[in-house]
Amino acid sequence: MVRRDLALLIAEAMEPKTWVIADIVIPKNGSNSVGVGRQFVYSEGRVVNCQFGIAVFLVGDKWSCPVNWRLPLPPSWDGDKDLRAKARLPDDEYSGPRWQHMLDAIDEMTTDWGLVPAPVLVDVRSGLERELNSLVRGLEERYLEYALRVGANRPAATLASARARPQTLSFAEFINESITRNTAAHSRWGPPTSGGGRSQLVAARLPTERSPAPTSRHRTGNSRRHAPRSAVQANQTPRSAAHRHVVGEWSPFRNYLRSIWLTSFDQSQLPSLPETVARLDLVAADLATLYDDLGLRHFEGRSYPGWHHYVTLISVAAACKQLSSN
Questions:
Q1: In a domain? residue 98
Q2: At a CB cut-off of 8 Å and minimum separation 6, what does 277 contact?
């Protein structure tokens, strides 16, 4: 109830432009706090003993605020009855994929709270890329717009080849292939660098059952007997996937790809993508404030209800801080 009322208040005050889903890492020394386990943390590049949470931020033009939270459990918590009892875990709380926790949080916000959804923004490089297909499918089944930052070397699509068996391309290879076939759209954006260049946005539609895979002119890399599973497979796409695009941000003079996004934005929306994805930086700055100034890393309780009570208070504190200064 408190989270819902706070979210409605924030939504009225800021008119959210995006919903950003961010990882929350709370390092711990012991093993008894709810959800603690040794888990790989992408931002740290190593395994950390921590609580690994999820926060959904409402994000406007100048500020953001977390309004919903989830605490995915490591599998080690599923069968330890004594540990679960001490942490006061509900009987239906067990480990599960992070994408499902994200969709559950979104469902609560749209269905139970009545919020009008905005495009969902997630950096899936933080251990979510193996779950990318499920997350994309869940967002599309809910008819939600999205922009997901993906890794350059992750599989993106399988293209038919005129000279050999179908080839699975990474996201970076897919962009390069689209440029070679002259099927990618180009635009320049971002401030000029000292050399006078601007970042270049390159967008190409991802093949779906409504958009047949084109024929590849050449092969890149070594062929494989068994191609890796595509992140989003064309023969299983729902109807709402017709406008999936892979978008790459090239550095000035195309020296390297700065970032790659998988998005549901159509051609008319793609020019607004740079402004949309820039809100990840806004959330990162506000998240640092939650950690350092509002005490997000300082939770000392051990129970499941206690954790949720604490992060809800963090949301209230963040809202008060932002509303008083904006």
A1: yes
A2: 121, 147, 149, 259, 261
Report pLDDT digits (tens) over 211-231: 444 333 333 333 332 333 334
Question: How many domains does the structure of the chain reveal?
Answer: 2
Rounded Cα distance, 34 and 152, in Å = 35
| Cα 316 from Cα 259, distance rounded (Å) | 33
Strand pairing class (215-216; 155-161): parallel
Q: Where are the beta strands (DSSP E) in the chain?
A: 18-27, 37-41, 46-59, 64-70, 120-123, 146-150, 155-161, 167-170, 185-189, 199-205, 215-216, 245-250, 257-263
Chain centroid to CA 88: 30
If we measure between CA atoms, which residue out of 245, 227, 234 comes closest to residue 168? Answer: 227
Instruction: Give the structural domain span for 71.
Output: 1-128+269-326
Q: Which residues is 191 bridged to in the sheet?
A: none
Stated as kind and residue range, the H or E segment containing 176 is: helix 171-180
Residue type, 72: P
Contacts of residue 160, defined as CB under 8 A and 6 or more positions apart, other chains included, come to: 166, 213, 214, 215, 216
Per residue in 243-296, pLDDT tens? 789 999 887 766 778 899 999 998 888 888 888 998 999 999 999 999 989 988
Task: Flag whether 24 is in a domain.
Answer: yes
Query: Mapping DSSP to helix (H, G, I), strand (E, B) and coil, where does residue 46 land?
Result: strand
What per-residue string of b and e applies to 107-132 under the rule 16 or more CB within 10 Å gives b?
ebbeeebebebbbbbbbbbbebbebb
Q: Tokens for 35?
A: 């959800």
